[in-house]
Amino acid sequence: MQLVLPWRHLLYPGDVCWNEQGFRLAWHVMLVEKSGDVEFRVRDPRTGQRWTVSPRDFLTPLQARMMAPVPDMIVQAAGMVRDDFARRGHPGVVVTAEAFASLNGRPARRLVDPRVDLGRERDSLAPKPWITP
Q1: Mean pLDDT on 72-93
Q2: Where are the chain's structural domains?
Q3: How far apart are CA 81 and CA 99, in angstroms?
Q4: Interval 86-125: pLDDT, tens
């Protein structure tokens, strides 16, 4: 396992340091300094209402900072936002993200496709086409 697991990133397209697919428990972990910023956009398709949601409405400042540059954590946070809106009487909202990240001191770039309803995405081992190259 210790010889095979670090190579699983080769199964995914793109730069493992950017998309983080197959990243955990791999040797690349020590090569990356990544930071990010995320803001969620919520839209109720039934009413047309729109909201902007900060991750800090649901997470501590440290959790929000750690989540921002990590695509699978952004999806988990989008699920929290979706569930919160459902509890408040807005089931079926669309949750998208304005997410930008900086890798190893480079200028920040868009991390996820802002058109994708992240509230409906499920984390899996499959490649994630909603992560921008």
Answers
A1: 97
A2: 1-32, 34-124
A3: 15
A4: 999 999 999 999 999 998 899 999 999 999 999 999 877 7
Which helix (H) or strand (E) covers residue 112, if one does? none
Angle 59-65-66 (CA atoms, 0-180°, nearest 5)?
90
State both tokens at 64: 């929000």
Query: In the prediction, which pLDDT does 124 show?
Result: 75
Which residue, chain included where needed, has tokens 């992240």? 118
57 CB-contact burial (10 Å; exposed 0-12 / middle 13-18 / buried 19+): exposed
pTM for this model (two decimals)? 0.82
**pLDDT digits over 25-54, tens only?**
556 566 678 899 999 999 999 999 999 999
| Contact criterion met (CB below 8 Å) for 78 and 71 | no
Whole-angstrom distance, CA of residue 44 vs CA of residue 16: 34
Computed from CA positions of residues 56, 60, 65, 69, in that sequence, does the dihedral angle turn out positive or negative? negative
